[in-house]
Write a structure and sequence with these properties.
8-stranded parallel beta barrel; monooxygenase activity (chains A, B); oxidoreductase (chains A, B); flavoprotein (chains A, B); homodimer; Diverse_substr_monoxygenases (chains A, B); two-stranded antiparallel ribbon; monooxygenase (chains A, B)
Chain lengths: ~450, ~450
């Protein structure tokens, strides 16, 4: 196609050095040792930038997964990583256009620290910072922060809402032109351009101002990934972009319609929130080669790893049940309600065994998997994009670096040929990449 | 001298883009706009590395100074800066040998976050991270963290002691060789090499383990700067290196003797703690040129800036007193006791006016100022170093970048000619630069 339509996809990619698939690290092409080696991340980030991705994204948690034995934990790599804000700050030096986003929890942080860290990243990167707002919901995290159990869902979301509003208020502590630095008069900043927040709420009392100048984007981009009712409400009210796990086109469309409706209901333009379903691609020169890559990884999932991860997601210790028996009825675990229901519905629908269910979970953690040639993967993305299911995608390479290389070298050129994706960065900031309005510039 | 003595100085430098002197930003040679410009920091860090400094250091606070009016605050630059861990992470990419240290408060942080951030910096920099452990003691900071007032001195130090011990415990969460990443067996880490902290204390309950592999130094270097009794006790028990403000050689010697005695009293080798008094150098081609630089800066201190900073340090609003009258008797401010006494003793001794006292304070914030040619500055450092007052120095350039350039281009070669300072880095890590033992390597 030579006719570029007006509407173009937005693409994010989640960089986990061991890949998104639980057994990705065991793939013959996977390069190991990358968890703590900046050079590995440098190469990945530069590959993503070569692919003109809007943003690269680092996931995070503040503790190990909780329902696993040490033996189970030791079978999979997602146990430990570099603190993402430090890593993104370092990556800001070796990239120049791609957006840089990371998860930070509202449950076990203070808004003043979070506001400062992302404003700093936004300065360092000249306007490329994004914050993925999450709540923490494992006891494993709670126990690292003076608690026995994580707070309940309502309370976490009530705290999250206030947290985001405090952070946004702190980001507006200074007008854009507050720092005049006049050597002659000895005036460093204009005192009329300092804005003291004086926040007092249910969860936080934060006076401000933030001790950092307003950053290039004003407000770094807010990402969210909630699919619970509370999560959706928060996203509709505050998010600029949303990651979502959807297994099927219908699920993705339903989510898209529902969230855009809520966004409009709150008086925001539907285009103010970009919806990016996660896609785990297996790309081959032939469909058969791609299928073989996928099958090989499924077989490499160690049962301990599989059971451990399934237990964590479903909120129940699954090692008590026969591996090749049907998925049993389970007690509802309040903290895991939405994810648990998703998985049990799936097991019922497809009549899965425990082994098959963990195979499913370890294969993309609830995200949609596409297996095929570059053209077939592009077809799927185009179909979802043009069916009202997505404004773009969060690409989850199953193993690295080859999984990202394949996408950048083969799928992205195909999307570009079809006029569905940029061939060059047009803007400078992450907001510009995502086609988002800038937040109101402060008085000037 | 061609005979290099065995003992060599250690040199740190505090990088504040506007300089250490309150009026440093107004110096004709000062380059402005650097607070948020990574390129300015990159150049400064690379200059310090060219000078073979052991470590560059970033100060920090989590709020504005408290006892100043906005009008006063607006007259000096130390109000806002990049979050230092993010900045150091970025600097780790553009430097290769110099140590990278920053302040993080034990009062308004959680040990899990702090342990992770410094372990991350240690990984990113291949063993060059240092943490300057402080307690926060202004209400301006407290009010950004859900409190009206900062906790009292005893409580802050009791929390700081426990905080440091939790962080050190978390740094030992994994043996050095815990991550085996065996693709064949599907074993990612050796479960016998994970160490769960299970800390329960007066201030913190932290289960662990930290979700990051043990870092190259095992324990990043601990800096401290306390001069109160509690501060000294904490430093003697846990610090690897100590920054200290001493006006005179006698004060520096007294502090040195006292702290080394306490260190020995706790069963540690006196050489296990490096003592680095702060030195603000004014360097000229002639003594007269240096004196002229110093005088020019004193005259550039705006009275509002001077009064504001003096009030903050002394814990009392000083704008109520006549500028050119004697420094009056003041009520004891518990939270500022040690700094207040230092300043009042000085005012009595030298019969200072309020204006003269703020001139003194803004000129190096209680640190020793040396004014002269490069040889004269080197003489002073050598004299202190050889008189049992210092293991090295923390160099505080009054304005930047020229103040650092002068030291690196003129004083360091002089120290090197005298055999007092390295001509090349010999080790790879900050611990090695400082000649410190590595902490016990974990089981292997």
């Amino acid at each position: 196609m030579t006719d570029a339509p007006n509407r173009r996809m937005h693409l994010a990619t989640l960089l986990q050095p061991n890949g998104h698939h639980t057994a990705g690290w065991r793939h013959p092409d996977a390069e190991l040792g990358g968890d703590y080696d900046f050079e590995v991340y440098r190469k990945l980030a530069q590959t993503a930038e070569r692919g003109k991705f809007d943003v690269l994204f680092l996931a995070d948690a503040v503790g190990l997964r909780e329902r696993e034995t040490t033996e189970q934990l030791s079978r999979s790599p997602i146990t430990a990583n570099l603190e993402p804000l430090g890593l993104l700050s370092a990556l800001s030096v070796v990239t120049s256009r791609i957006g840089l986003a990371a998860t930070a929890s509202t449950t076990y942080n203070e808004p003043y620290h979070v506001a400062r860290k992302f404003a700093t990243l936004d300065h360092l990167s000249h306007g490329r910072a994004g914050w993925n707002v999450v709540t923490s919901f494992t006891d494993g995290e709670a126990r690292n922060f003076n608690r026995e159990h994580h707070p309940d869902h309502k309370s976490r979301y009530s705290r999250a809402r206030e947290f985001v509003s405090v952070v946004q208020g702190l980001w507006d502590s200074w007008d854009d032109d507050a720092f005049v630095r006049d050597k002659h008069t000895g005036r460093y900043f204009d005192p009329t351009k300092m804005n003291v927040l004086n926040h007092r709420g249910d969860h936080f009392s934060v006076r401000g101002p933030l001790n950092i100048a307003r950053s290039p984007q004003g407000h770094p981009v807010l990402f969210q990934a909630g699919s619970s009712d509370d999560g959706l409400e928060l996203a509709a009210a505050t998010a600029d972009a949303v990651y979502v796990a959807a297994q099927t086109l219908d699920e993705a469309k339903a989510y898209y319609t529902r969230l855009k409706g809520k966004v409009e209901g709150l008086g925001r333009a539907p285009s103010a929130v970009r919806i990016l379903p996660g896609i785990q691609p297996f790309i081959g020169r032939t469909e058969q080669e791609a299928a073989e890559k996928h099958r090989a990884l499924l077989e490499l999932i160690h049962p301990d790893a599989g059971l451990g991860i399934l237990s964590t997601l479903i909120g129940v210790d699954m090692s008590a049940y026969p591996l090749d028996g049907p998925v049993p009825e389970l007690p509802v675990t309040e903290s895991h309600r939405s994810r648990q229901k998703l998985l049990l519905d799936l097991a019922r629908r497809d009549n899965l065994t425990v082994r098959q269910l963990y195979g499913h979970v370890c294969n993309g953690a609830g995200h949609h998997t596409v297996i095929g040639t570059a053209a077939q993967v592009a077809d799927r993305l185009q179909h979802w994009f043009e069916s009202g299911a997505a404004d773009g995608f969060n690409i989850l390479p199953p193993y690295l670096p080859a999984g990202l290389d394949d996408f950048v070298d083969h799928v992205i050129p195909e999307l570009q040929r079809r006029g569905l994706f940029r061939t060059e960065y047009e803007g400078a900031t992450l907001r510009e990449h995502l086609g988002l309005d800038s937040p109101m510039r402060n008085r000037s």
